[in-house]
Design goal:
Rossmann fold, 2 domains, seven-stranded mixed β-sheet, 24 strands, about 30% helix, globular, binds glycyl-adenosine-5'-phosphate
Length: about 450
């Protein structure tokens, strides 16, 4: 099961502190969203899961964290300054602006008029000014990156010089990207500030076809491991006339969001377009002369193949996923509404354990008993030290209510400390109740065994 509508998700996200509209108390800033206390945990967990699989668990990928502000020449030579545009139309009646391909039936979405201007390109990069002096020319112009990828290409030589990798190898990066979307929409699906999780995987030309297929399969299986069901995912090969300016082939991995099947991640064969173009720029601008003495090596964004002693400008396969779209997909997939035996309804987020924002809630059976409260508080602290993620203490005094609240935010395990836990001479002394979110089954377990149990339960998938 999944959410029936986007509204269900938006409402749960606001109510329980996952995602809020950006700048809300000033009326909201369109295309921006803020992650609340639970949203930030979920986002951290998904980001970490991606990093773990793509950097720690591989021998051929290294990480990078490049700056968001980029030299204007990066985006001139990457092609973004000229070509990173969407077609836009204006409604002559109500003066609203739309992305041309979003205007269904040739009518303005706001007023229904068909009196629209001809489509014209609108560059989606956010410009900014570097330094305190505002100049009339464009010398202080800089851009907020529209993709994290360029930070990887312009650091290619730095990484090669420091690690001397042999092909194939990848550089991974997670971070913010900014696009002045003409019509942001569908909650966190299309926003103006978002996070990308990107790998630029450098391969020998001629082997790019193999690695392209490899990464498409790899990425689909990864999303399945994060809890997305296979039937809600499909691959779509972009037609040649719709490819980005840098791409020879792109497969979009689509997910069935509440508003329909749309792109969650793209895998592109960027050939040697970017390295080639930045190399050409180095020569054209003669930048290397200012930076280092060895002119040739800086100009060459290439790898020396040891067996043949030849310089190779690698092709690059790029799996590029949206973290925010990932969060929306995970929330959608996890959302379940169930009718219980007593007829009441429960909303439960069935996250995979490693993604759950709260891993364990420790609950004292009553809140008016000092001993019970302090035993539960101490237990929370001890479990927190295991390093499995966020553990909370929750004393509502109403155990049923606590379970429902935790179901709704996807806490996989609730641990209840009751009077038996404290009773000297009882068989149940120093044992607690463990309640499973999905089955709602409860078992009794000695506190001494909890650490091993929880470590295994929350181990990476
Ligand atoms: N470096 C390649 C690149 O940026 P893209 O298909 O334009 O390719 C990659 O973007 C991913 O970034 C998309 O699949 C999507 O998940 C995410 N993304 C792109 N634009 C977005 C937006 N406006 N809001 C949220 N996520 C976005």
């Amino acid at each position: 099961m999944a959410a029936q509508s986007m509204d269900q998700l938006v409402s749960l996200c606001k109510r329980r502190g996952f995602v809020f509209l950006g700048s809300e108390i000033y009326g909201g800033l369109q295309g921006t969203y803020d992650y609340g206390p639970l949203g930030v945990e979920l986002k951290n967990n998904l980001r970490q899961a991606w990093w773990r699989s793509n950097v720690y668990e591989r021998d051929d990928v290294e990480g990078l964290d490049a700056s968001i502000l980029g030299h204007q020449l990066i985006y001139k030579y990457s092609g973004h300054a000229n070509t990173f545009s969407d077609l836009m139309v204006d409604c002559r009646q109500c003066k609203s602006r739309w992305r041309a391909d979003h205007v269904v039936g040739g009518k303005c979405e706001r007023c229904g008029s068909k009196d629209l201007t001809e489509p014209r390109p609108f560059n989606m990069m956010f410009k900014t000014q570097i330094g305190p002096v505002v100049t009339d020319d464009e010398s202080s112009l800089s851009y907020l990156r529209p993709e994290t990828a360029q930070g990887i290409f312009v650091n290619f030589k730095n990484v090669c010089d420091s690690l001397s990798p042999q092909l194939p190898f990848g550089i991974a990066q997670v971070g913010k990207a900014f696009r002045n979307e003409i019509t942001p929409r569908n909650f966190i699906f299309r926003v103006r500030e978002f996070e990308q999780m990107e790998i630029e995987f450098f391969v020998e030309p001629g082997k790019d076809g193999f690695w392209f297929d490899y990464w498409v399969n790899e990425r689909v299986s990864w999303w399945v491991k994060q809890g997305l069901s296979k039937e809600n995912l499909k691959c779509f090969e972009q037609p040649k006339n719709e490819l980005a300016h840098y791409s020879k082939a792109t497969v979009d991995i689509l997910y069935k969001f509440p508003h329909g099947f749309e792109e969650l991640e793209g895998v592109a064969n960027r050939t040697d377009f970017d390295l080639g173009s930045h190399s050409k720029a180095q020569k054209e601008l003669n930048i290397q002369a200012k930076v280092v003495e060895n002119k040739d090596s800086l100009a060459k964004l290439a790898v020396l193949k040891l067996q043949t002693n030849e310089w190779i400008v690698p092709f690059v396969i790029e799996p590029s996923a949206g973290l925010d779209r990932g969060i929306l997909a995970i929330l959608n997939e996890a959302y379940h509404e169930e009718t219980l035996e007593n007829g009441s309804k429960r909303i439960v987020l069935k996250f995979k354990p490693h993604l759950a924002p709260i891993k364990v809630a420790v609950i004292p059976l009553a809140r008016n008993n000092e001993e019970l409260m302090s035993k539960a508080k101490q237990l929370r602290k001890d479990i927190q030290k295991l390093g499995i993620g966020r553990i909370v203490f929750e004393a509502t005094g109403n155990i049923g209510k606590s379970y429902r609240r935790n179901d709704e935010v996807g806490t996989p395990i609730c641990i209840t400390v009751d009077f038996d836990t404290l009773t000297e001479g009882s068989d149940l002394k120093d044992t607690v109740t463990i309640r499973d979110r999905d089955t709602m089954k409860q078992i009794r377990m000695p506190i001494a065994k909890l650490a091993d149990y929880l470590r295994e339960y929350f181990a990476s998938p």
